[in-house]
Design goal:
The protein has 388 residues and is α/β, with parallel strands linked by helices. It has helices spanning 6-21, 30-42, 101-118, 138-144, 147-150, 204-222, 261-282, 301-315, 333-337, 371-385, and strands spanning 46-48, 56-62, 68-74, 123-130, 155-163, 170-171, 175-178, 181-189, 193-194, 230-239, 245-246, 249-258, 285-294, 297-299, 320-321, 342-350. Strand 3, helix 3 (101-118) and strand 4 form a beta-alpha-beta unit. 49% of the residues are buried. The protein binds zinc ion (2 copies). One zinc ion binds next to loops.
């Protein structure tokens, strides 16, 4: 295991708490990004700022090797009012690091510092710090700004903490690790009228009710019971009717999750087919929109094997779960994995009062005890993949 010295652990804790105190959201992470850039520069690492608005890339070259890998952390916080009372609680009311991105950035800074000091690898490491993960736009913004052309790398790796798993344990799987997240909106237009004379109109409530039941057949009748796990949920049903009035319009909104882009396409296509068919049968018209916010997070087999080997060496084989169940949460690192092979993995944040609180909860805090583990994993991965 790479030895992360006590001074560096203390520095990572300090950086992490500084970022926790000063959370910023979305693409508006200017202070955080500047703080990280200045730390990287203080380690002697070249920094390219403003990649995908407020994203940045640190470049550390060593030896004459041409191989390169990317390590990615996210920097953004959430619009949550923190309910913790410890000394490093958020100074920005209504904003909070409730997903641990402060910890992800501190761990990657720690690895950058360690690798810059030891320089015992051969090749190039790109330290990728991205904005706006929570709304699912930051990774794509960096890709659109030429991330993988300007910083050519053979693979990209990401790491997220996970409360409820033992502190420092490492969980991953090849293939689909996390679900997509999509939303849909269906507007059904009928002909409203007097509630006593429904035969004079086209009741969109009846049509909309049939649509909602029809949507339930997508998972049960259009997707493979063996290979395609998915969720299709209608979550809102809004009409413009009132007492004694059949509405002229209903709006149905909802949410879908699945684990492959093939399933995602099938859900969207079958949804529109069902809506169109039921509306046509009833004499109603419709508008349909389907917005995908997060793609499924799909790990490539080779890079997942690399990640598992590095984690075993850095964290101990007994702390690794190499074949976990998939998770229905989502992650915009998925956009990077659509372009480059790579591996996204989860690092246990703890099960006790420190580290056990769920992500996106106003009482959450990143567990500083795992900073060392994350930095050790990153450093080991670099040494394995860019052999000196
Ligand atoms: Zn989050
Ligand atoms: Zn997160």
């Amino acid at each position: 295991m790479p030895v992360i010295d006590a001074n560096l652990i203390a520095s990572m804790t300090e950086w992490r708490r500084h970022m926790h105190r000063h959370p910023e959201c979305g693409f508006e992470v200017e202070q955080t990004s500047d703080f990280i850039a200045r730390q990287l520069e203080s380690f002697g690492i070249e920094v390219v700022r403003n990649v995908g608005q407020t994203g940045l890339v640190g470049i550390l070259r060593c030896g004459d090797g041409e191989a390169a890998i990317g390590l990615r952390a996210d920097m953004d916080a959430l619009f949550i009012h923190e309910q913790n009372s410890f000394e490093h609680r958020s100074c920005h009311d209504g904003k909070m690091h409730a997903c641990g991105h402060d910890g992800h950035s501190a761990m990657l800074l720690g690895a950058a510092s360690h690798l810059a000091e030891h320089r015992d690898f051969n090749g190039t490491v790109y330290f990728i710090f991205q904005p706006d993960e929570e709304r699912g736009k930051g990774a794509q913004a960096m890709i659109d700004d030429g991330l993988f052309e300007r910083f050519p790398m053979k693979a990209v790796y990401g790491l997220h903490n996970l409360p409820g798993l033992p502190a420092g344990s490492f969980t991953v799987r090849p293939g689909s690790l996390m679900a997509s997240e999509s939303s849909f909106e269906i507007v059904i237009k009928g002909i409203g009228g007097h509630a006593a004379m429904p035969h004079t109109g086209v009741d969109p409530i009846v049509v909309g009710s049939q649509v909602i039941l029809g949507l339930q057949t997508i998972v049960s009748r259009n997707l493979s019971a063996i290979h395609e796990t998915a969720v299709v949920s209608a979550t809102e049903f809004v009409t413009n009717g009132t007492v004694n009035v059949i509405p002229s319009e209903v709006t149905i909104k909802g949410d879908c999750r699945c684990f492959t882009e093939d399933s995602l396409a099938k859900i969207e296509q079958n949804m529109e087919r069902i809506v169109a068919g039921i509306c046509q049968a009833a004499g109603a018209s419709y508008e349909f929109s389907f917005i995908n916010t997060f793609y499924p997070t799909v790990n490539s087999a080779t890079e997942t094997a690399h990640a598992i080997r590095a984690a075993e060496a850095a964290l101990g084989a007994e702390n690794i779960n190499p074949a976990c169940d998939p998770f229905t949460i989502s992650e915009d690192f998925s956009s990077m994995l659509r372009v480059k092979p790579g591996c996204y993995a989860l690092l246990g944040n703890g099960t006790e009062s420190v580290g056990g609180c769920a992500l996106h909860n106003p009482h959450y805090d990143f567990n500083d005890a795992i900073l060392e583990k994350g930095a050790a994993y990153w450093s080991q991965l670099v040494r394995d993949q860019l052999k000196a």
